[in-house]
């Protein structure tokens, strides 16, 4: 369970803020990194969130104790990294933030060859206006590129101080095992983190072999699509609701009997906890083995409070069990 302790919150805009109880940092895998139990996603920055919105989102996240930002070199063609870099520079908070980015899908430096990784990391450093990246994920898995080449390239970046740690974002359990074996043979840094599609509506992919591998390798897990493209906020319960959203096509797969069952269970727990449906959906993920920090995005600063609230609530056993049962059609054992 997430523990809490009182900590002062410092406003970035000079306004007085009250001292509140904030969750302590969670260890990220076997690394010395300590992160807030909710990573703020930068995938909307430069897309549905402009500079003003991104600054407001990051300000609110920071003021509520957040220190973990997730982005990628391919988000908005690099614009997301630029906006995050500008925010950290203007607020002078780089040293207190844990910045995770992904390489492999950029239009300029795509793939996981040694050349592509080196160029992608240098480009991300420039856009983020920093000397180092706390965590770099391999955004793609390319079996045609020898793992030895990829791992040596990442290790070079770690040895040079440009990258602190790295992880996987699109790899099967077998590939993670292969990577660990090769890393040991080469004497290079192993992966310490995994980012994977995981939420109440999408469980099988992670809860199969990936969960087992994450446990064996003591990987820190950061679930992406933690709110199922917005479905788990409870805002989209019917076909009519979908028509109001440009992502209605993506959300349609969730408007099913199972989806309604999951929302019903979330509604009940939300009433009991006196929080939002989205908060409960994220808190459920935080009860799962090896999960460190779900990745969730906001398009407006007002949405951030619901996201960070997940770190401060403790779901009861019966509440977790009811959510497990409601979403059980894709259930697999850990």
Give a summary of the structure in a few sentences.
This protein has 334 residues and is an alpha/beta fold.
Layout of strands and helices, then pairs:
Blueprint: E1 4-7, E2 20-23, E3 26-27, E4 34-35, E5 39-41, H1 51-63, E6 68-70, H2 79-91, E7 98-103, H3 114-128, E8 133-138, H4 147-159, E9 163-168, H5 173-186, E10 193-197, H6 204-217, E11 220-224, H7 239-242, H8 248-251, H9 257-273, H10 277-286, E12 295-296, H11 304-308, H12 317-326
Parallel strand pairs: 5-6, 5-12, 6-7, 7-8, 8-9, 9-10, 10-11
Antiparallel strand pairs: 1-2, 3-4
Fold and architecture overview:
The protein is of the alpha/beta class and 334 residues long. It has one domain (27-330): Alpha-Beta Barrel (TIM Barrel). It has 12 helices and 12 strands. The protein has helices at 51-63, 79-91, 114-128, 147-159, 173-186, 204-217, 239-242, 248-251, 257-273, 277-286, 304-308, 317-326; strands at 4-7, 20-23, 26-27, 34-35, 39-41, 68-70, 98-103, 133-138, 163-168, 193-197, 220-224, 295-296. The strands form 3 sheets. The chain has an 8-stranded parallel β-sheet with strand order 11-10-9-8-7-6-5-12. Strands 1-2 form a two-stranded antiparallel ribbon. The protein has a two-stranded antiparallel sheet with strand order 3-4. Helix 3 runs parallel beside helix 4 and helix 9 (257-273) crosses helix 10 (277-286). It is globular and about 50 Å long. Mean pLDDT is 91; it is low at 1-11, 13-20 and 330-334.
